[in-house]
Design a protein that fits this description.
With 195 residues, the chain is mainly α. 74% of the residues lie in helices and 0% in strands. It has one domain.
Amino acid sequence: MIKSKALEVNIADYHVDVEIDPKYSMLQEVLSQYYGLMEGLNTFLQELSHPYKNWEFIVKEARGYCLEYFHLIKKHPHGAAVAGIYINIFTDAIHSTADKGIKTDAVDNLLLFLQKIITDAGSEIERFMPAVDHCFDQISEYSPKEFFLFVKSFYQINKLAKLLYSHAPNLTAGYGAINLLLLKYYQHTYAYWQK
């Protein structure tokens, strides 16, 4: 390994002792009985709490935890809030990074997580809908440039809507958020093909 005095000075100058932000405590709670997972989770949460975030690492780790352990999230009393935290991690990455590749990964992983919630929540879907609907509203608010990442994603919004309609045909709150998102999605898709 090449030793660099400049690198050592840079690391020393920017070294920050990081405490995990208390807003992530519910993520720890979900996995608290699985000691083998806690070290990796805490590393992930420290990175999330760091002032200089490595968004590539954060997006990759968030994907792993929210998808692999959704069965634990679903059973947890605060599972819907935990889902909301993961959704916010992805949306924060989309807002915060300038790297188009990381933005694209965050968009894809966010849509994949929404798909996971819709398909795997089963009879618990109503509990998760406030977080899901809030996410649909957030997606609708993106600028045209960022919204286009959702339009061209492999995990298409129209297919996500079909999943929601088929897995939750009688939602108490209705389908207003997904319907508004679909409208914007189709408008952007149509405008793109008109060019």
